[in-house]
């Protein structure tokens, strides 16, 4: 069995099943999700993408071959491009500005997720770093496919859902899976990869859940 298949079977599939049943996702597709929850999600996703780009830059600097260096560096640049595109499309539809995003700051779950990713990418092995960032690629792609199947009666949510599903992003995910399966890892390193992959899968669920509940810092 490939490393990516092991990671998904042990840590990805159980969490993914809970994500697609989460009330944030079902609310998107049946149109009942509170628009304030969606605003929260978009603001926090903007903060997340900025940090995710930096994490990918760290991986690019540690990659073991030139193709992987180029790939992760390109993905880092693309994450910033997506974040900027967000500002010129959905933010306006939501009545938000870039200043609103900056003023809102990073919420508790976003901060924890970003901090964990950065720490693994900076201090773990190259293989551990790849395993840690993989859920964002993989779950994002698969949730997107599910959302496209369901669509939404809400025009705002439908507009966002329709940004998913490009063949280009599918190719991006497959390229990262190929890198994952090409990693030469020891038994102990493999277990650490499992731990990091499972943890960031949980953070993916927590990210949706934080948006649904509009989670804020309890003090301050």
From TrEMBL:
Hydrolase recorded as keyword: yes
Catalytic activity: thiamine + H2O = 5-(2-hydroxyethyl)-4-methylthiazole + 4-amino-5-hydroxymethyl-2-methylpyrimidine + H(+); 4-amino-5-aminomethyl-2-methylpyrimidine + H2O = 4-amino-5-hydroxymethyl-2-methylpyrimidine + NH4(+)
GO molecular function: thiaminase activity
Pathway: Cofactor biosynthesis; thiamine diphosphate biosynthesis
Keyword Hydrolase tagged: yes
A Gene Ontology term for the protein's cellular component: cytosol
SUPFAM superfamilies: Heme oxygenase-like
GO biological process, one term: thiamine diphosphate biosynthetic process
Role description: Catalyzes an amino-pyrimidine hydrolysis reaction at the C5' of the pyrimidine moiety of thiamine compounds, a reaction that is part of a thiamine salvage pathway.
Family under the similarity heading: Belongs to the TenA family.
Protein name: Aminopyrimidine aminohydrolase
Organism from which the protein derives: Kribbella steppae
């Amino acid at each position: 069995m490939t490393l990516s298949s092991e990671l998904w079977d042990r840590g990805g599939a159980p969490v993914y099943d809970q994500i697609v049943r989460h009330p944030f996702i079902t609310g998107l597709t049946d149109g009942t999700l509170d628009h304030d929850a969606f605003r929260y999600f978009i603001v926090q996703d903007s903060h997340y993408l900025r940090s995710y780009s930096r994490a990918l830059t760290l991986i690019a600097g540690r990659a073991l071959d030139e193709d992987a260096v180029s790939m992760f560096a390109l993905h880092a640049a693309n994450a910033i491009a997506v974040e900027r595109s967000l500002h010129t499309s959905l933010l306006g539809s939501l009545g938000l500005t870039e200043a609103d995003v900056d003023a809102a700051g990073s919420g508790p779950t976003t901060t924890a997720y970003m901090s964990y990713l950065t720490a693994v990418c900076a201090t773990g092995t190259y293989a551990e770093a790849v395993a840690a960032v993989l859920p964002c690629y993989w779950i994002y792609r698969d949730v997107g496919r599910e959302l496209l199947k369901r669509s939404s009666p809400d025009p705002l949510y439908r507009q966002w859902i329709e940004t998913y599903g490009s063949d280009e992003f599918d190719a991006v995910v497959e390229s990262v899976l190929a890198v994952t399966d090409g990693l030469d890892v020891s038994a102990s390193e493999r277990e650490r990869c499992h731990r990091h992959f499972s943890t960031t899968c949980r953070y993916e669920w927590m990210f949706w859940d934080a948006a649904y509940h509009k989670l804020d810092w309890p003090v301050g």
